[in-house]
Write a sequence for this structure.
């Protein structure tokens, strides 16, 4: 078996040597050398063609630019460039073939490496098998030599002593051990035979791969030969065509040269004429800079004068435009007054730290530089424009806002009813505009100060009495903020005198004579008003607050008596329950606020569409504002706007509602004046102290009975009431 294995290994080594010699054959290298030689020959032919073309170009440089055969020459050059491109394509194909040959050579090298690795593995396997075979032969030889001695010992030990028997047993056990070793060596020999079979299978697979590679190499070689033959034919054909065309072109070029020589002889007189013209133009060009400078100076002077005229015209037009804009605004206000429209002012509060940071706190409101009544809102990427009667930017002060409304306030002294109410979402600045702060008061306190100033100015001819009432609508219940029992619910009724006016029986009315009295009344009203903290406003108004100022006047010379009423309303802000975080009682308050504001919207819609029935009684708020919204009052709405990006939805709703309110026509306003004798100074005055502390005044808006008990008020509210009583 060992000899057979050696013979097989020898045959495999010879087969591998034969395959290696076949793989090392020079076929691929020969093909590559042939391709390189062919490429070099093509390059030499291309260089020869390029030399001929250069010669043709040198000959073509002689004709002048006006040659009649320039177009043919251009066509020939284009054809030459086309031939050059074809030659470049041929070179590219040759490069691709060289690359393919190189790839095939690399694949053959990889096959050789794999064969070398397999041969090395086979040599190592053969060496290992040979060593194991030698070990097995030595073991078998030693086993064959040992049993004869044992038999001999057995025969000779039969008559010996006990020691000889013991040695015999040891020999027998050793013989058994050696037989086991022989069995193990036979098993190893079987494994070696199996490994040899697997090696033979591997060699067969390698041979199959080599055959496949040889077939692929032959196929590639055939394709390369065919492509080379086709390229050779195309190259020869292109060279022949180029040569024939070049000969034709050369003949045409010679003919063109003859024509050009003739043309040159005829062009010499024309050249002399052109030279004379050129000299004259040169003299003109030399004198041109001076002429140009003179022209530029005159042009600059004319342009400067024209610009100055345009500027003066623009300034005059701008002055006229502004004057016309003021006149238009004045006429519009007069038209609004005659029609009885509700005037609508807009005020935009500044961005505050409560709005947060980032994109949600960005400013979404812009203004028109030429028109202070136009406001632009950027909502969901689209700009929406709104036109009101006046728009106040964030930098507008309380004084500037009041200057626009003071004309309405002073008309109250002349006997007109005036209503100013602030509308907008919660946190938009309504309370700040109406009430302000102690250092910077709002419309309420400034209006009363203005009334006192006007009253003092007319004190020589008129006697005036100014009284103040304060109420709030909380959860659809009307409450007296200046009464002893602020939680008591009041009702709205018609005046019994048949005038159709509304009044609130039991509503406390204080007479005020100075700014100090005003501050005390405001402080007392603030103590009783309902405000709470929400996610949208730290001091959110939870009710609609109404400040009612009544001005009664008497002209001592004519006996003319006037009665004017000024309603200053701070509406509670509309809010989204999800954003404000209202729960429990706050949620119920928000529902009542939104319901009353919705009723106000229904009233505005009915007035705008001129419906026969206006639903004033759907809410205590609209019922109380019926006098101000039914055509017997000068009404102004101050819509408050938040410029933050996160509030654009609420801002859009507020501005749309403001536009609807602005289009409502209430009709001309009537003045409340009558000629009558003034009974006494006491009838002019209203309750000067607390209700119940003195006889009740005449008039339906005062309390006509004493309260049974002062009610559970705080010590601060009680002290303020006591000060008011003392002042009265």
């Amino acid at each position: 078996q060992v000899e057979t294995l050696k013979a097989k290994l020898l045959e495999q080594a010879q087969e591998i040597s034969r395959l290696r010699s076949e793989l090392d054959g020079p076929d691929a290298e020969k093909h590559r050398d042939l391709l390189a030689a062919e490429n070099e020959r093509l390059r030499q032919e291309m260089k020869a063609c390029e030399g001929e073309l250069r010669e043709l170009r040198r000959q073509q440089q002689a004709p002048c630019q006006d040659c009649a055969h320039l177009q043919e020459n251009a066509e020939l050059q284009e054809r030459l460039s086309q031939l050059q491109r074809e030659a470049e394509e041929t070179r590219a194909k040759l490069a691709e073939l060289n690359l393919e040959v190189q790839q095939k050579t690399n694949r053959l090298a990889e096959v050789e490496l794999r064969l070398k690795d397999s041969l090395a593995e086979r040599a190592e396997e053969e060496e290992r098998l040979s060593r194991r075979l030698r070990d097995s032969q030595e073991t078998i030889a030693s086993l064959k030599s040992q049993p004869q001695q044992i038999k001999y010992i057995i025969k000779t030990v039969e008559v010996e002593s006990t020691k000889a028997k013991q040695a015999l047993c040891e020999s027998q056990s050793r013989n058994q051990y050696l037989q086991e070793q022989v069995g193990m060596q036979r098993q190893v020999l079987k494994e070696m035979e199996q490994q040899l079979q697997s090696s033979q299978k591997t060699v067969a697979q390698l041979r199959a791969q080599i055959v496949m590679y040889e077939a692929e190499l032959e196929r590639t070689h055939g394709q390369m030969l065919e492509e080379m033959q086709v390229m050779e034919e195309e190259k020869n054909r292109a060279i022949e065509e180029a040569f024939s065309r070049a000969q034709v072109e050369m003949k045409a070029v010679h003919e063109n040269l003859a024509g050009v020589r003739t043309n040159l002889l005829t062009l010499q007189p024309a050249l002399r004429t052109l030279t004379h013209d050129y000299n004259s133009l040169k003299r003109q060009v030399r004198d041109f800079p001076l002429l140009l400078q003179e022209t530029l100076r005159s042009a600059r002077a004319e342009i400067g004068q024209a610009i100055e005229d345009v500027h003066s015209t623009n300034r005059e037009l701008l002055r006229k435009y502004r004057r016309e804009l003021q006149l238009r605004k004045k006429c519009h206000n007069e038209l609004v007054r005659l029609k009885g429209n509700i005037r609508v002012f807009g005020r935009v509060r500044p961005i505050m730290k409560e709005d947060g940071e980032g994109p949600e706190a960005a400013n979404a409101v812009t203004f028109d530089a030429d028109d202070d009544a136009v406001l632009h809102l950027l909502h969901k990427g689209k700009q929406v424009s709104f036109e009101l009667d006046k728009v106040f930017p964030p930098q507008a002060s309380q004084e500037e806002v009041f200057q626009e409304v003071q004309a309405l306030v002073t008309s109250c002294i002349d006997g007109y009813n005036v209503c100013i109410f602030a509308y907008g979402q919660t946190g938009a600045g309504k309370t700040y505009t109406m009430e302000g702060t102690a250092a910077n008061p709002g419309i309420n306190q400034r209006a009363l100060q203005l009334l006192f100033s006007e009253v003092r100015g007319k004190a020589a001819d008129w006697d005036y009495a100014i009284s103040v009432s304060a109420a709030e609508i909380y959860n659809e219940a009307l409450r007296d903020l200046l009464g002893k029992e602020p939680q008591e619910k009041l009702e709205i009724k018609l005046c019994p005198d048949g005038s159709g006016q509304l009044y609130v029986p039991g509503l406390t009315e204080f007479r005020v004579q100075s700014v100090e009295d005003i501050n005390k009344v405001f402080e007392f009203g603030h103590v009783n008003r309902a405000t709470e903290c929400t996610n949208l406003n730290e001091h959110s108004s939870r009710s609609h607050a109404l400040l009612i100022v009544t001005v009664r006047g008497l002209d001592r010379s004519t006996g003319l008596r006037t009665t004017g009423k000024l309603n200053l309303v701070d509406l509670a802000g509309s809010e989204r329950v999800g954003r404000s975080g209202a729960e429990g009682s706050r949620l119920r308050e928000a529902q009542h606020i939104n319901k009353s504001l919705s009723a106000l919207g229904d009233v505005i819609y009915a007035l705008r569409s001129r419906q026969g029935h206006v639903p004033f009684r759907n809410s205590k708020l609209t019922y109380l504002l019926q006098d101000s919204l039914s055509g017997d009052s000068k009404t102004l709405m101050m819509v408050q706007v938040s410029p933050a990006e996160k509030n654009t939805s609420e801002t859009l709703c507020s501005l749309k509602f403001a536009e609807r309110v602005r289009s409502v026509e209430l009709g001309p306003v009537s003045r409340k004046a009558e000629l009558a004798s003034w009974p006494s100074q006491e009838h002019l005055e209203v309750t000067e102290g607390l209700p119940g502390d003195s006889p009740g005044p005449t008039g339906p808006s005062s309390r006509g009975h004493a309260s049974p008990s002062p009610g559970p008020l705080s010590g601060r509210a009680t002290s303020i009431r006591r000060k008011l009583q003392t002042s009265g």
Q: What stands out?
A: Residues 340-532+540-578+585-663 form a domain with the Kinesin fold (CATH 3.40.850.10).
